[in-house]
Amino acid sequence: MTWDAYNRRKNALREMLEVADRRPGTTLTELLDTVDGAREAFPTETDALFDLQMTWFQRLSGQMDRLLSGDSETPELVPVTAWVTTAAELPGARALLDAHRDDPALRKAFAKELAYLAISAGSVVGADLTTHGRRIQETAREQLAAAPVVPLRDDARPGLITRLRNAIAA
User: Fold this and answer.
1) What's the rounded Cα separation, in Å, for the pair 60 and 56?
2) Which residues touch 123 (CB under 8 Å, ≥6 apart)?
3) Which pLDDT value is given to residue 110?
């Protein structure tokens, strides 16, 4: 993939997520049809779903890293807190992924996410990671439904890494 194609995909996905955040219930097909350049960037819905899932997972793992590097959380609670925070930050992405929960193309990615949640909570590799991860995810969903979290955003001043990445991309 060329840098042009990569940047087109990232820009299209960012715009799709902005629309999905503002208009809950929007389908992936509607997003691909209404966001400029989305169909060109993502020839199939599966292509868009893979990028969407990767965006979700990167944000989730970043939240997990931040929480694990601090002393405020017990390890068992970190995956729940990270999942809830990520879902609050990316409500459109979470809704789209939930709508495609049974998509066979994403089965492996979803299974890896569940295993990641379980291992992050202290499960031993070899245990039933999928079941434990699913319990963590269900707890997080219940927590989010009971008390939705409003993510803290500092959009006024991007961080150093974001500024450097933007400068390099330009």
Assistant:
1) 6
2) 129, 132, 133
3) 95
* CB-CB contact of 86 with 60 (8 Å): yes
Do 144 and 84 touch, CB atoms closer than 8 A?
A: yes
Cα 51 to Cα 18: distance, rounded to the nearest angstrom? 15
Whole-model pTM: value is 0.81
- Write down the residue that tokens 């707890």 correspond to: 139
The helix or strand, by DSSP H or E, that contains position 149, with its residue range, turns out to be none
Alpha-helix runs per DSSP H in 23-151: 28-34, 38-41, 45-69, 78-89, 91-99, 107-120, 129-146
Opening angle at CA 37, ends 35 and 39, nearest 5: 85
CA distance 90 to 84: 10
Residue 137 · residue 114 · CB < 8 Å: yes
CA-to-CA distance for 25 and 4, rounded, in angstroms?
A: 30
Model confidence at 155: pLDDT above 50: no
**Helical pair 45-69 and 91-99, crossing angle rounded to 10 deg:** 130
How many Cβ atoms from other residues are within 10 Å of residue 89's Cβ? 19
